[in-house]
Amino acid sequence: SDPAYRNEWPLHIKKKLKGDWYALMGHWGSNYNHWIVDELPRLISALPYLPADVRFIVSDDIAEYQTASLNALGITQERCFYQSSFGETEVERLWFATPLGHSEHATTAPDIATKMRDIFVAKLGSQAHKKKRRIFISRANAKYRRLLNEERLIPELERLGFETKRCEEMTFAEQVRIFSECAVVLAQHGAGLTNALFAPAGCRVLEIHGPDVTRFHYWTLACILGHLYDCFVGDALAGQPKTMEPDFTVDLSQFVSWLNKSLAAD
Predict the structure, then answer these.
(1) How far apart are CA 99 and CA 201, in angstroms?
(2) Strands, DSSP E only, in the chain?
(3) Separation CA 64–CA 77 (nearest Å)
């Protein structure tokens, strides 16, 4: 009831719900990476212990990938209550799973991550016997942390058999199907690399970092999933304004040399 809290979030939609409810509104749940490696692992680990008639509280601006992934787990729209950002809901019994790893660093329980891959690939993925696609994930549409000479890089990637994909232009089912066929996933650091979760164990995960932002999220995820990991660090742009997530470039000859070595490695 603190006035500062009430001023920041005016909660004028009040509800009372009977029965058992599970909360699916984690702090970073609206981010693709955090939904896949934080919210869903906790949910999957909790599902065997929840009451059979439990229902789920979700955000009223729920994204397509959230709805589609819940449907694949058997959680349909009819079992969900759509909570407004301006709502205050009191439930009879609230269920909430504690963290199953470290959300900030994309770590989760390996057995649950493997179980997730099996569930989603069985429901939505490719059943092709050979997994050999090479995918480059573009961030050209992003607002920050872009590879600014990407267009010069793509012809060389195509020569090496890479397809360029923009994950934000695909449905969740399309992402599961495409990445379940991958032998190699190449991308700048970003949420699109989360889709390595759907690739078969042994997939090669190749990450491009900017010089000012290097994080180990996807190295950790690759280790959890049994993938092979390597990374390349690009170059800062001269005269670029200071930002938290700056754009960058790569030296093409150095990058192509690194890429060929990574693809040839056992």
Answers:
(1) 24
(2) 13-23, 55-59, 80-83, 87-95, 101-102, 107-108, 133-137, 162-165, 182-188, 204-209, 228-233
(3) 12
The amino acid occupying position 25 is M
Task: Residue 108: count other Cβ atoms within 10 Å of its Cβ.
Answer: 26
How far apart are the C-alpha atoms of 60 and 72, rounded to whole Å?
19
**Residue 101 near residue 25, CB atoms below 8 Å:** no
Q: In the 8-state DSSP scheme, what is residue 200?
A: P
To the nearest 10 degrees (0 to 180), the angle between helices 110-124 and 172-179 is 100
List, for residues 15-55, the tens digit of each pLDDT value: 899 999 999 987 667 789 999 999 999 999 999 999 999 99
Length of the chain measured in residues: 266
Q: What is the pTM of this model?
A: 0.90
What does the alpha-carbon distance between residue 235 and residue 225 come to, in Å, rounded to a whole number? 29
